[in-house]
Amino acid sequence: MQRMSGGQAVVAALRAEGVEHVFGIAGTHNTPLFDGAYGEPAIHVVTVRHEQGASMMAAGYARASGRTAACFVVPGPGLTNALTGMGMAYSESTPLLMFAGQNALAQLGREGDHFHELPNSLAVAGSVCGYAERVSTPCAIPRAVREAMRAMHCRRPRPAYIEVPLDVQSGVAEVETLPREAFSRPAGDAAGIARAAAALGSAERPFIFAGGGVASAEGSQPLARLAELLGAPVVTSMFGRGVISDRHPLALGDGWGRFNLYDELLAQADLVLVVGSRIDIVSDANLGARFPRRILQVDLDPLVVGLRQPVEVGIVGDAAAVLTSLGEALAGGKARQCWFDVAGFRQHRRAWMTARAGPVLQVIEDLRAALPEDTIFVDDLTLVGYWMPLLLETYQPRTLIHPGTYGTLGYALPAAIGAKLACPKQPVVAISGDGGFLFTLQELATAVAQKLDLIALVFNDNAYGAIRTYQDRVFRGRRIGSDLVNPDFAKLGEAFGVHSARVEPKALGAAVRRALETGGVWLIEIPFAPEGPPTMVPWMP
Ligand SMILES: Cc1ncc(C[n+]2csc(CCOP(=O)(O)OP(=O)(O)O)c2C)c(N)n1
Ligand SMILES: [Mg+2]
Question: What separation, in Å, do the N-terminal and C-terminal C-alpha atoms of the chain show?
């Protein structure tokens, strides 16, 4: 037991849980939270320039590292500003721990002119969280933080929200900090694993569809081992890119399986093991809907299993644990030859991409060649970004961070800042369009203040290009609201005190190499208007 304020109790609980970074903006309604971190060396407070940046940084931080960061925001506008990043994190199954201040307990429930008042804030935050709670005494803080951590680490990862009224933040009490706990996830039930192993053993032409759940469970090794035992090729969802290296002889690449590239695989396969993927709407429209009849599904979230299609065996559990158990169950047999012509598929895919992607293929290959293998790429919703999961050779998990199906613009820069703070030794590159970049560009100031080495690329077509393309394709060229008048990006970079450059696409490789060598924050504008992937919006007619 130790006597401390609610603000100090929050920070003590974060320290006890191993949280190292807090992103946020202070106001009268959360200053005691910030004050709790005063002089606390274990907690690094990052002041951001908009709360949207805070939640997106925390999301990028977690996706790059698997570690959880926290945010401190004021209630009302601070919370509603943060919601977009929280919605994003919710859709991409990413943890982040959001703390908002609140008016004093006695003022709650009596709607009136209270400052920063947001009726039903718990319900508002709760709509994009797996856990939402208001604490009403400092003593309740360690338990609430523990419950939030459990919700994020033992169940499907989702943001968590804790609201701390002002009198609780400043109130002083005897608080007991909880000892560290090793969080565990369900390992999958033995009977289900035995049935799934038998089904895999009996299948003649199985393949594996691996999603982001494999990355968040650190399941790359057991995935590769199981695939090798079965001779099963592996397709990844866009969240799963990197869970198997593109150099692995069984890796088929991204399952944003547009263009009927996977028809041959799907026509021949007699069983699919779906692991750590809800089979999002994009994958479902293109690939899931044509899965073979026999489906085995492994997921931490019971609501996901069998959601899109009926499954022969469903297992609720941690992807790494279940893949390991399946591997052990099948290890007695001889490793099988792969039944599918992976090399032929890759050649076919490559020829297809070369024919359709146009100059964007070269741009992405140049980026790949110029940067080390562990570089973390963070995409925005931009035409180049859409192509990234398809075209970027990816060798390690968590190195291609593609936005979730929430699909907000402005994600790349703040998420890249979070990724860099989490993984300071890895180069980090944000890929934005001119439209999306202006949603969160002020976070360049945060990157400068944090003295980061970071490369922000802005592909400039002076348009909401994806929408312009869409209008051209679907609305017979009736362009409206999609042309943009932009600032001078080089001067903008200068004003923020970052290195800036404007380069033609063919000079991009050299430019990023130079940026990497020089260090610091770089804003590189590339005048470029690529084609979007042919079925860019697959769920539309
Ligand atoms: C918050 C938000 N508002 C609107 C959209 C709709 N939208 C999707 S892509 C896009 C265009 C993005 O333009 P830009 O960032 O320049 O990339 P480009 O498509 O030109 O490559 C828009 C407006 C969105 N995804 N998110
Ligand atoms: Mg654009």
Answer: 62
